[in-house]
Amino acid sequence: MRPLLAAALLLTAVAHAQAPARAPLKPGSEKPAAEKAVAPRPSPATVDATNPDAALLRGLLWAAEPAPEEIRTLAIEDLALLGDARALDPLAALIWDPNPRIQQAALRAVALFQHRRAEEILGNVVRHPRLPDALKIQALGGLLYQRTPTARRSVQDVAADSRVGYAVQNAARSVAAQWDAPAAATP
């Protein structure tokens, strides 16, 4: 509850920071001189729509707020569409949500980022002993999107690791084969 309160306060602070400062009143004038010369302010909806911080905060609030599963899933997907890497850590926390659909949506969102932190989160999901195999297989697919030497090494390590389940190991072999497929297709 405290993070939600802090997020709401942050959203309010962002809105107040965007409001222009009011000039003092001149004697005998009803409106400040600065207000007479300045065009009318846009509505709060248009101001917030152009502010990436407010959009990120709204997405985080909708993703974490107790709401129907579909609403939370859409908010998580919207966080991925924003492309703001600051959303990666909250998305990683949502992987531990008790709802499997929220977990899958959060992992899909993390996999859409080509970022060092996203690669780290995906690798941690694959190596974690308590997460379900379906999430691990989904994370392996996300590592394919990263296309870095360290992601490739992680996939190869999982393919050779006998401690992971057979399904995860087999999926890692399949991802490793897909990694090499585009290079073999070019002449």
From TrEMBL:
Highest taxon above the source species: Bacteria
**Record InterPro entries:** ARM-like, ARM-type_fold
Q: Which SUPFAM superfamilies does this UniProt record tie to the protein?
A: ARM repeat
Task: Please name the Gene3D superfamilies in this protein's record.
Answer: Leucine-rich Repeat Variant
* Disordered as annotated region, ranges: 21-50
Query: Could you say which residues form the signal peptide?
Result: 1-17
Does the keyword Nucleotide-binding feature in the UniProt annotation? no
Which keywords does this chain's UniProt record carry?
A: Signal
The record's Pfam families line, in alphabetical order, gives: HEAT_2 (PF13646)
Q: Answer yes or no on keyword Signal.
A: yes
Membrane-spanning parts: none
Protein name listed in UniProt: HEAT repeat domain-containing protein
Its taxonomic placement starts with:
Bacteria, Pseudomonadati, Myxococcota, Myxococcia, Myxococcales
